[in-house]
Give the backbone structure.
Amino acid sequence: MPTDVRKLIFTKQELRLAFQNLCKAKGISVPQAPLESFQVVENSTAGRIVSEHTPESLKVILHYVSHDPNKPLRVQLTEDQIMEAMIVLCKQESIPLPRRGQKFIQKHKDTMALTIGMTENDLRVAREG
């Protein structure tokens, strides 16, 4: 049974913009300071498909500029929020994504990737729909 696999690798700048846009759109409370950097933190089960019944394997910590080194300004994003930010960015950039198929995220070197896998059945249903 053939499977179509596509991997989109995002730059740090693209992810930074995607995370900032997500926070603004979802009303996530963030400091009134510039986003300095972000850190991708993965557990030992990274690259796993996200579902309601499995623990998260990835998170992103947004680091904001702080005038007090003893009080860092950080915001944590969940795996679902990270994926949502990446999908919204694809839509904004007119990058086509299939509705069907399994999507998962993973750390890729010092950035992140969104991988989409579609089985033969997913492809058939997509063509018919």
User: Anything to note?
Assistant: The chain has three helices and six strands. The mean pLDDT is 84.
